[in-house]
Design brief:
The chain is mainly beta and about 475 residues long. The protein has strands spanning about 10, 20-25, 45, 55-60, 70-75, 85-90, 95-100, 100-105, 105-110, 115-120, 120-125, 135-140, 150-155, 170-175, 180-190, 195-200, 215-220, 225-230, 230-235, 260-265, 285-295, 300, 330, 340-345, 350-355, 360-365, 375-385, 390-395, 400-410, 415-425, 430-435, 445-450, 460-470. Strands 4, 7, 8, 12, 17, 18, 19 and 21 form an 8-stranded antiparallel beta sheet that branches. Strands 5-11-20-13-14-15-16 form a 7-stranded antiparallel beta sheet, with no helix packed on it. Strands 23-24-27-32-29-30 form a 6-stranded mixed beta sheet, with no helix packed on it. The protein is globular, with a radius of gyration of 24 Å.
């Protein structure tokens, strides 16, 4: 239920009689409410209690078909969004239950002229199980294959309340690209201009396609927290929304309205790219074991947006920490580690990085398929609107090769404050200098990037003396 801006300081969400629920059939509905399903043999599922929460609704997918008291089909034509190729249908070939799982299946059909056509499944709980605030827990197993894109995400019941996307807000509980099933993403979208914050989890072994994993988000009035298998990997508390040219709406808009859950398996699109001859459509199935939504008995809605904290330059005016690579311990492989420098691999990239003799040394074993497949970054770079900056560094390689540098905005739709700039490293050290003016909103989360993937070379790269400073 939507609350006005003059809502009471606490939202009372009610108490439930029991903290442990026995799920007969596939959800909270009783067999008496669904007599047509009561004859089908079903498994008795014990839904676990969570301390501090009560169970709001759930689906264990133990019925003979999708429970239409909870879910609706969400048909869309190809190209509906993100230049995706699939048609979302109402066919039980694309959406069905099997062995206590919801199955969303992508199907490829080739016509007599050799043209490929794709169908797939998308379901949503809109206008059936909408809610505001809670802990959403989903167990799922993703398919592997180039161009496959499974997602668990949430949108507001009334998308027009604060304005169309992205002003309305979006909560992505999980996305995985079928081309790299070792990596999962959790993201929140909001604002105008479009802004986002994203967390990334890369498995040390195995993949998200080999077994079921549990993806969850704790959504509260002033904070959201993302987990995979109970491990926290992203916390967000500083979103906003606005209409272009107007003041921002009162925090915590747009996430102070009811949302609904949706599940889908996309094919192709601007992010994953299109399927190819390696994509196995016989096994293009997104499996969901359960969806469970819990709520606390009450939530304090008297929340304030935290003030942005901007990192200060060092005594020499350098905004880059450990830019001289004097501390070898400040190099990590996960942004959550909070190191000065982070070495990342995506989309087929393979390699390693070390700091030695005041030098960052990056070895590439596989280039990957995108420029950021092999990437070195420093996060939390302060960027102020109207200020002029100069980036300098020394670089060389074992053989002549190209790489890219930029200052990006991971929390502002990945726009660039310093545009992607390709430069050529030779076998002799050179000093590179790039000047730019920051023209966007103040951002305390800028990111310096060196991107070394998909450049036709695996030559080892050496970087020294990185500086980012303000200039007149």
């Amino acid at each position: 239920m939507r609350k006005s801006k003059k809502m009471l300081s606490r939202v009372l969400l009610g108490a439930f009689a029991a903290m442990t629920v026995t799920a007969m059939a596939c959800n909270k509905k009783s067999a008496e409410e669904n007599p047509s399903e009561s004859a089908a043999p079903v498994e008795v599922v014990e839904v676990p209690e969570l301390e501090g929460y009560t169970l709001l609704w759930h689906d264990e997918f133990s019925g003979a078909a999708m429970d239409e008291s909870i879910w609706s089909y969400d048909p869309h034509e190809p190209g509906w969004t993100n230049e995706e190729l699939q048609e979302y249908t109402t066919s039980t070939e694309n959406v069905f239950t099997r062995d206590g799982k919801m199955v969303l299946k992508a199907i490829k059909t080739t016509d007599e002229n050799g043209n490929d056509y794709y169908t797939s499944g998308k379901i949503k709980s809109q206008n059936k199980e909408d809610f505001m605030y809670g802990k959403i827990v989903v167990s799922a197993k993703v398919p592997e294959g180039q161009g496959l894109w499974p997602a668990i995400w949430m949108m507001p019941t009334d998308e027009s309340y604060y304005g169309q996307w992205p002003k309305c807000g979006e909560i992505d509980i999980m996305e995985v690209l079928g081309s790299d099933v070792t990596t999962a993403y959790g993201t929140v979208h909001y604002g105008e201009p479009h802004a986002e914050q994203q967390g990334i989890v890369t498995l040390d072994s195995g993949s998200f396609a080999e077994d079921f994993h549990e993806y969850s988000v704790e959504w509260e009035p002033g904070e959201m927290r993302w987990y995979i298998d109970g491990n926290l990997y992203l916390t967000v508390n500083d979103w906003f929304t606005a209409v272009a040219g107007e003041d921002e709406k009162e925090y915590p808009a747009p996430f102070n309205q009811t949302f609904f859950v949706q599940l889908n398996l996309a094919v192709g699109g601007t992010w994953p790219g299109n399927p190819d001859e390696t994509t196995d459509f016989d096994n293009a199935e997104f499996l969901i074991d359960y969806v469970r939504v819990y709520q606390k008995p009450e939530y304090d809605t008297n929340v304030q947006k935290p003030a942005k904290v901007f990192k200060e330059a060092d005594a020499t005016g350098n905004f880059i920490t450990n830019g001289d690579f004097s501390d070898p311990s400040q190099l990590g492989t996960d942004l959550a580690e909070g190191k000065d420098w982070t070495f990342l691999l995506f989309e087929g990239g393979a390699g390693s990085a070390i700091i030695e003799d005041n030098t960052m040394i990056i070895k590439t074993d596989a280039e990957g398929t995108v420029d950021y497949s092999v990437q070195l970054v420093q996060p939390d770079i302060p960027m102020l609107k109207g200020h002029n900056y100069r980036l300098t560094f020394d670089c060389w390689a074992d053989e002549e090769r190209e790489l890219i540098t930029c200052v990006s905005a991971p929390n502002a739709g990945w726009i660039r404050y310093l545009e992607d700039t390709t430069f050529k490293a030779t076998t002799k050290p050179q000093t590179f200098t790039f000047d730019f003016t920051m023209t966007e909103k103040d951002d305390n989360k800028g990111r310096l990037e060196f991107n070394m993937g998909n450049k036709g070379s695996k030559a080892t790269i050496y970087i020294q003396n990185v500086r980012l400073e303000e200039v007149e």
